[in-house]
Amino acid sequence: MTDDPQWTTDGVTRRRYLTLTAASGAALGLGVGAGAAARDHTRENVTITSDNSPHPVDIAATVYRPGGASADDPVPMILHSHGWGGSRTSSEGAFRTELDAGFGVLSFDQRGHGESGGQAYVQSPEREGQDVIAVLDHVADLPWVARSEPKGLPIPKKDNPAVFAMGRSYGGGYQLVGAFTETAVKGYTRFDALAPQITWFDLTESLAPEKVVRSTWVLALYTLGAGMVPQHVHEGLAYGATTGQWPDGEPLGEPDLESRFFDNGPVGFVERDIRLDVPVLFGQGLSDNLFNFNQAWKNFERGLTDSARGQSAVVGYNGGHALPNTFPPGDGSFGGVVSGPTFYEDARLTFFEAIRGDSSDSGDARSVVGSPYLLQTASGERRVAVDRVDDRTPYGEADLSVYGDGAGGLGVANTDTVATTTGAGAPIHLPLDDGPLTVAGVPELSATVTALGVDQRLFFGLSVGESPATAQVLQNNVMPLHEADPVMGVERTVELPGVAADIGPREQLYLTVTAVSDMFPIHGSIRTPGTVVLEDLSVGVPLTEN
Length: 546
Fold this sequence. Notes:
The chain is α+β, with helices and mostly antiparallel strands. Helices cover 20% and strands 27% of the residues. The strands form five sheets. The protein has a six-stranded mixed sheet with strand order 1-2-4-3-5-6, with helices on both faces. Strands 12-11-22-15-19 form a five-stranded antiparallel sheet, with no helix packed on it. Helix 2 (125-140) crosses helix 3. The protein starts with 41 loop residues before the first strand and ends with a strand.
């Protein structure tokens, strides 16, 4: 586990495999349009009929064709799509980098968005998944698109277009749901490689971890999409945003998004033992407090075959769906709702070039990134390469009693475990270790829990500061413990948000416990008076070498 010198931030973003030749393409049987950059690119608006779903729709798309691409000199295609509430890219001059590199691009409006028909079912395999298959069928009919070698797949080469995919957030979800849907239907997918960015593994777990609704985000998403969703999504998101309770159909008569959303992401396919067998370059925001880094970790570890995982990688960075935390205070590592670092986008193009090439520099996502995981630290000063993000060092086994006063207040019974006293509602910071040290991965908390009262909620995260008074939550992320009913002495494990940070020699690493989080403001704190007691508290922290 070492730093990757190819990616050290020193004012210059260093890229691997930038010397891939545009003329090489035998590995996938591709021609790559070597002269594309020197000729004029064109674009055309098209309509694609998706008629394999229960509700057929017309999908609006814009096809960008690099100059010189033809049946005699074919090029690979990159599918692109937009975020929730957005629309396709159709402007003149768009995707110049990809076109100059010898790729075609097809950008499309997902159903319910832009000029496409229907309503948005939030990546339903029966609808949006089938739409992606229809788009792939359209690409297969374009004579200027290159063909991939089937490599043992039950498909003729002429029907197997060379296709890659990119997109952020909802535009990352279409790639995974589309590829999984095609794999479920046909036993394979025609995608050669995917590059989903800041997207989800489990939609319910993202919107409501432990069934505690991220009401700040759910309210924003509902407001953005209320006019384009079917009634069950309308009712479910409105219910979750206004009550703070995840709509799982209980009690009878209340909305049920949990069962409907189960298949709207990789988790539903993985539960049916369906996995993707293509290389993937995941990009995820470590400061993304909607689809946190843990979602990419699960996509990588659970959603891919062993073979595909060996060709894939995860890049973590500061950005994504990143809102600043003011309570508990966050460290300010955020970069806007759809931000993405240049180095990930450079790596993505290099990844696509590597997959299509056959030069000595060709490879896959793993060879481009240099390790399974490449994580940017909270300060943004460097990136840490690690093989695993769940190799944890245990800390703790202290007893801590936390009292909820019904209004977000916390009291501590065992003050020997706390560096300073705290006032009503203030978070508690438990010291774990002194710097210097480096954290890079997904921490985990375990404890024996007694909760006296119903619907008890606490939130946890790792923090850094020179004292508890200056401690800030790493990369603005917390995760909840939720006890819906009273419990006595039950063992619980809480998965904390993935982080990457250098803790300096004058700083301390803390576990932060809080009854309130501004990502869960609607009934997010302890909802009824009661007591939560955490005994034998232990925190597993993924440490790596400095």
